[in-house]
Structures are given as C-alpha cells and as structure tokens.
Specification:
31% of the residues lie in helices and 18% in strands. The chain has 18 helices and 20 strands. The structure holds siroheme and iron/sulfur cluster.
C-alpha cells in the first residue's frame, strides 16, 4: 500500500480544503438544514463548530421517515477562561438569539452554544466578532484552548502567556473570516501568506496545553499533551516545569487506545517556554500518526519514542535548554468557589454552575443575574476548569454582587455538599454524537446516591471527587476522579475508583455495566471499608489505590 492510500480520509480532506475553506461557503448558503458536502462535517470543526442532531428525537424522526433535527454546537475559544463584561454579554446574546438559551461552560474553560440552526451560524459569528470573540480553533486538528488556573490568571504574566500561546498557534488562514464573518465566498481563495508551520494538513489531531498553579492541580495538568507548572530553578531562575504526553481519551472498539498521564520533560526558562512548546507541537506535527485517528494523539508518540529522545529532539529543534529536574508535587485542585481576595486587587466570587449550564430556571435565574451584573458593573469573568464561573469585582462591590446573586435565587457554594461543589459531568445526551449514556442530565441523581452513601458512613463532609462521562472519551476527565462513571450502554456505566485527588494517578475499573439503580450497592462497600480501615486523613482515592477488593 502506498503512503497516500494509507492516510486517513480526514488527511485528504484537510489537504484539499484550500486552508480550511472547502465547500463551507456554498454549504452555508444552500438553505438546507444539514451540511451537504461530505467534507464539510470535518472541516467545520476547525472553525469551532460541530454538526449535531438532537438525539432525543432521533428515533421518532427516523421511524416517521422525517429529517433529523439538525443543529450545530459552537465552541467559543476563551484562553484561560477570561472574559470581559462585553464579551459575556455577547455570549448571552447569541445563546438567546441563535442557540437554545443556555451557555455551556466547559472543562477547558471555553463556552459552548448549543442548538444553533445552520442558517444562523454566520450571524452568530459576526456578533462574536464584534466582541472580539471567535470559535476558530475551538475544535479541529490544532492547538486547542489553553487551560489556565484561574488564580494564576490574576498574574498578568500568565494571563498574557495563554493569549500568546493562542495567537502563536492560531492557524494562519483567512477562511473563518471569509466564510463565517464576512461571508464573501467569491474572494474565498487561499493566499501564500496564510501558510504557516501547520502546513496544509495541520496536526494529526487535537493538541492540548494546560498551565497549573504551582500549588494545586485544578487544571488536571497530567491530562494534557503539554502541562506547564510554573516554578523557580535554583540556578536557572524563573521558568516552568514541563510535562508531556498526557491524554485521557479511549475507545471500547479500539483496545490499543488508553488514558495516559503526562511525564516530566524537565525545567524550561520562562523566555524559552514558547519555543520549547513550539518544538513539541512540531514533533507531533511531523511524527504523529496519520493513518489511524484513534491512535493519533501526541501521547502515543511520547509512549513510543520515550521522553529522553523527545527531550533531545526539542533541544535540537529549539536550541533552548531543558534541565533535568523533578516535577513539583501539587495539592488537590481548588474549586475556586466562594469569595477570595485576588492578587490583582479584585475580589473574586466563584459561583457554582450546576453541570456547567448557565440558564434561567424557575427557582434560580443565574443567566439573568449574570447578564444584569455584566450590564451595570465593572466585572471580569473567568470560566474555571470545573465548568464554574468566577466573577471579579472591586472589593467595595462585593455586597452588591451578593445582593444580586441571592436575589436571583442563585445557588451558592455553601448550599452544596462538598461532593457537589467539585463534581463534573460532560455534556453527553442529547447533543453529543459519541454519547453512549446520559451524563450532564443524570449528575443530580448520581450525586444524591454518592452523598447518601457518604452520609451513611459518616463522611458527608468529605470532598470526594466525582465525575461522569457519557463515553470513554472522558471529557469530564473522569479517568482522574476518585469515583468515575463512564457510559457503557444506554443505561449502564463502568465504575472506576481510586484516582489521586492530586490528579497524578488514574482511576481503575472496579465494576462493569452498573445501572444507577445498582450504583449505591456497588459503591457503598468501598466507602464503608474506607471509613472503617482508612488511615486518618487518607483520601478515598488513595485508600482504593492500596486496596485489592471491597
Ligand atoms: Fe471532549 C469529543 C465535549 C473536554 C476528550 N468532546 C467531544 C465532542 C466534541 C463529541 C464529538 O466529537 O462529536 C463533545 C461535544 C459534546 C457536546 O454536545 O457539547 C465533547 N469535551 C467536551 C466538553 C464540552 C465536555 C464538557 O462537558 O465540558 C469539553 C470541551 C472542551 C473544550 O472546550 O475544548 C471536552 N474532551 C475534553 C477532555 C478534557 C480536557 O481536555 O481537559 C477530554 C480528555 C482529554 C483528552 O483530550 O485526552 C476530551 N472529546 C474527547 C475525545 C477523545 C479524544 C481522543 O484522544 O481520542 C473526543 C472524541 C474525538 O475527539 O474524536 C471528544
Ligand atoms: Fe460526548 Fe463522550 Fe465527551 Fe461525554 S465523554 S461529551 S459523551 S464524547
């Protein structure tokens, strides 16, 4: 077989797309509700847009031989999760006018708008553009939104670092502006100046970077292709410890896929950080798999070549020094909830956003309260890596914010159990095409079961890390939870236990195909043993890791 025929279909689509234009212009203008050209579904992802259908009505539509309910999800890039009031208002506006009226905060600090008609995509992009927001690069085979610990983001250096990474690795093509913002199909042709280091086939797949706080691991730094932990070296000065080769996605159909923790590359000086990251992305671009998308992530390159060889290659390509040094130890991730004084002079209120979904409900109007705050006060917003939201204000405005938030019936961190404060669920049904089981919508039920079991063993105040994912792709970073439910069939989950609360050990499979009706009976024996036999102060995850069987 020649190399060309062995490459994946997607590689050909990218190469023939004229730098991500393809037939998207015609597709947006043709009046149909779905994308028509076969290449468009893949290409539109580079523009931060997913073609979906409402799976709640898929069966009845199919049986009635009716067209599916085609909708689109738009993922807006937000480096470090940081948004101005004007940007928040633009997101709120597009969610109302073009989406399903909710804003979905994600585990990578982006904001997703669900339920958009194809015919509204251009208007939505234009409104985002007015607020200097864009979905370009939200998905696709490129460097994705960089995650930054919200507390570290109060430091201008790190806030700048993630925007520098974003602009450094943004694909240089005018396709998004032409196709979505301006809609000028006629002038939509590529120009030589647009070519950059990605080349015409971009990366083999997505590439993810996180910047952790040196003291705590709220970003799950070991889950990333590249993890950065700021630190000071005794002789080299300020810089960061760099980790490489993490990633959590797996597939039941592809046994060769696995979750993997990032390993230590070494210490890199502050001024060398971006060139070193660029070399890592280049190695991935040049050596990552392009024949099987399931095994195309950077973690497989690192596993195959080994960190030492990659370090040598990075030094050769970048001409910078990577110093062998032990990775710093991180504490369990902060939830960033409640009021905290910021190092930037602001006071920060972390608001829990149940399941990351900012919406108005009968009992509480979170979306309305946030809109009113953004319209009338000088605030800064930060999406957290746990799908919650921080609101930063001048200290004298704290009482006013409290008044508005409680007046709207918004849940505060104190209203939640320690487990609910930290819990994460991925989107799953009804929009995610990969979902095998419910996730976001069953989280309250899962939390009630776990909280009930913890109360019975006398540990109701324990901040257990619970995560649910609708399939093994693990978008809630379930592989790093002390208690993880991973969708297996429509009504069952595989139960994983025992990840480290510090995010540096993966959970292990303890029970397969557990329905929610049987979750309590499956989990309770483990919790009981932990309560009876665990060492003082020992986390549930650490106890499970050193225990054979419940
Ligand atoms: Fe994810 C695919 C949602 C974070 C691993 N993820 C998807 C898609 C786009 C489904 C699809 O391909 O059709 C989901 C869209 C659902 C929807 O309707 O909104 C989806 N992923 C999410 C979000 C929204 C979950 C959430 O509830 O917050 C997160 C958006 C992040 C962002 O803003 O970019 C999200 N996804 C993650 C994470 C966690 C992280 O990055 O920190 C992971 C595990 C880390 C990793 O990448 O290894 C993750 N998502 C995946 C994978 C598996 C990739 C792999 O290595 O094979 C897929 C499947 C794929 O890409 O083909 C996937
Ligand atoms: Fe969809 Fe699976 Fe990711 Fe959940 S974990 S959002 S079901 S791809």
């Amino acid at each position: 077989m020649s190399l060309e025929t062995a490459l994946t279909h997607e590689e050909g689509v990218k190469a023939a797309s004229h730098l991500l234009r393809g037939h998207l212009g015609e597709d947006l203008a043709d009046g149909a509700r779905a994308l028509s050209h076969p290449d468009s579904e893949h290409l539109i992802k580079f523009h931060g847009i997913y073609a979906q259908d409402d799976r709640d009505v898929r069966r009845e539509r199919t049986l009635a031989k009716e067209e599916l309910e085609y909708i689109f999800m738009v993922r807006v890039v937000v480096p470090g999760g940081r948004l101005t009031s004007a940007q928040w208002l633009a997101l709120d506006d597009v969610a109302e006018r073009f989406g399903n009226g909710t804003l979905r905060l994600t585990t990578r600090q982006t904001v997703q708008i669900h339920g958009v008609w194809k015919g509204s995509l251009r208007d939505l992009a234009r409104r985002l553009h007015e607020a200097t927001l864009s979905s370009f690069g939200g998905c696709g085979d490129v460097v994705r939104n960089t995650v930054l610990c919200p507390r570290l983001g109060e430091d201008p250096y790190y806030a700048r670092l993630v925007t520098t990474i974003a602009s450094h690795f943004r694909a240089r093509t005018n396709a998004y502006l032409e196709v979505f913002v301006n809609g000028e199909i006629a002038v939509s042709v590529e120009d030589e100046s647009e070519h950059d280091f990605y080349g015409v086939t971009y990366l083999p797949r997505k590439f993810k970077i996180a910047v952790a706080h040196p003291e705590e691991n709220c970003v799950d730094v070991f889950a990333h292709d590249v993890g950065i932990i700021p630190t000071e070296h005794p002789t080299e000065g300020r810089g960061a410890h760099v980790l490489i080769g993490g990633g959590l996605g797996r597939s039941y159909q592809h046994p060769g896929t696995y979750a993997r923790l990032a390993e230590s590359l070494g210490f890199v000086r502050e001024e060398d950080l971006v060139p070193v990251i660029q070399s890592l992305v280049e190695i991935y671009r040049d050596e990552g798999g392009r024949v099987d998308r399931r095994q195309a992530r950077f973690k497989y390159v690192v596993a195959e070549r080994g960190v030492d060889q990659i370090r040598e290659e990075v030094v050769r390509r970048s001409g910078r020094v990577v110093v062998d040094a032990p990775a710093p130890l991180l504490a369990p991730g902060d939830d960033h909830l409640g009021w905290r004084p910021g190092s930037d002079g602001r006071s920060w209120l972390g608001l829990p956003v149940p399941r990351g979904r900012v919406r108005d409900a009968e009992s509480s109007s979170l979306r309305g309260a946030l809109r009113q705050i953004a319209e009338t006060l000088d605030v800064q917003f930060v999406v957290t890596p746990r799908q919650d939201l921080r609101v930063g204000v001048a200290p004298e405005l704290c009482a006013e914010i409290d008044r508005r938030v409680s007046g709207a019936g918004v849940t505060s961190a104190e209203d939640l159990s320690p487990v609910a404060r930290r819990a994460i669920a991925c989107v799953a049904l009804p929009t995610c095409s990969k979902a095998l089981a419910e996730s976001e919508r069953v989280l309250p039920e899962v939390l009630a079961i776990v909280d009930g079991a913890l109360t019975r063993v006398g540990r109701s105040n324990h901040p257990l890390e619970v995560r649910v994912s609708g399939c093994p792709n693990g978008c809630s970073r379930a592989a790093l939870a002390e208690v993880a439910l991973v969708g297996r069939t429509k009504t069952t989950y595989d139960l994983y236990l025992g990840a480290s609360p510090r995010g540096d050990r993966l959970a292990r499979l303890v029970a397969e195909k557990v329905s929610l009706d049987h979750l309590d009976a499956t989990l309770a024996p483990w919790l009981t043993r932990w309560a009876q036999e665990g060492a003082p102060g020992e986390s549930f995850g650490d106890f499970v890791a050193r225990t054979d069987q419940a």
